[in-house]
Amino acid sequence: MNTFRTGPVHSPSRFGDPASRHAEDETPVNALRRPRAQSEACFGPAVAGSSAAVARLRSQITRIAPYYRTALLTGPQGTAKVGIARMLHAFSPCAGGEFVACEATALAEAMLREDGRAVLEAVGGPAIGGTLFLDDVGEVPPALQGALLRIWAARRRIRVVAATHRDLRTMGITGQFRPDLAQRLMGVEIAAPPLHARPEDLEAVIQEVLRGAGLTLSDEALERMKAHTWPGDIAELEKALWDAARTADGAPVMEAAHLPVLLEANDGPDPAGSMERLEDVVQQHVLGVLTRCGGNKLRAAEVLGISRSTLYRMLETCVGQGYGPG
């Protein structure tokens, strides 16, 4: 695979030299945390592995990249969609230009203050242009969505890649998302496959997350990782590895004992093979997801694919576990 040059990733609240954000002493833990050098050929865990799902994703990206102007990346939260955006950029005619990643709501706020011009100037150079990545575009409040239309009004040579775990079409029907903005964003749609749809890629995903950090997993730790269902997807996996690296305290091999305690109480035997009541199994799963989400009910509801009010109703039957509406 060729090595493609992509530009720096800019924070929407700090458009200065990105190198200034990585002044920490270099240790295996810091190496795990820092963004990868932009000259590296790999595009992150979202496209790591050899499963049929990833093969289809890579094929779709390489077919679309030379021609698209806007793309919408969909799929569950935590699927590391920025890697897909990087690969689209790298295979596009503007691969030599800038790749600028912004949190969509923060950029919308900046556009209202006219600070957003700095972002557009950074990504839309005078020659070949670049790629603007808008993360969590479905979270932009309706009052701010119109500001994002200024991206196209600026008439710069910019390719736009947006990411969301929400259904923008449904949001447009219910009045939660501007139809004109949704139409702009949905030029081409690419779905990021979740980890549970490609379990054979897990080891490759772990290797990609750890790449360059000087860290590896013991066989026992790897088996424990494979046994987990990862409801929070790649984001949960990355956090688990970061927690393990911190606990390992400089040891190059992370053992099972270094992994978060929650992984020890992972899903366990398949409930389908037991004689438990369905209600009990559902309650255990809901409580398990809520625990892995640190008690954050909004995040747990998103992982479970239910509304927060539905989650509250479920938790009302689990008050003995210490959870309930709050």
TrEMBL record:
Biological process, per Gene Ontology: regulation of DNA-templated transcription
Keywords, sorted A to Z: ATP-binding, Nucleotide-binding
Entries under PROSITE patterns matching the protein: SIGMA54_INTERACT_4
Region of interest (Disordered), residue spans: 1-35
A molecular-function term among this protein's GO annotations: ATP binding
Pfam families (UniProt xref): HTH_8 (PF02954), Sigma54_activ_2 (PF14532)
Key word Iron present: no
CDD domains, sorted: AAA
Domain Sigma-54 factor interaction residues, every copy: 47-246
InterPro entries per record: Homeodomain-like_sf (IPR009057), HTH_Fis (IPR002197), P-loop_NTPase (IPR027417), Sigma_54_int (IPR002078)
Top-rank taxon, per record: Bacteria
The protein's name: Two-component system, NtrC family, response regulator HydG
Lineage: Bacteria, Pseudomonadati, Acidobacteriota, Terriglobia, Terriglobales
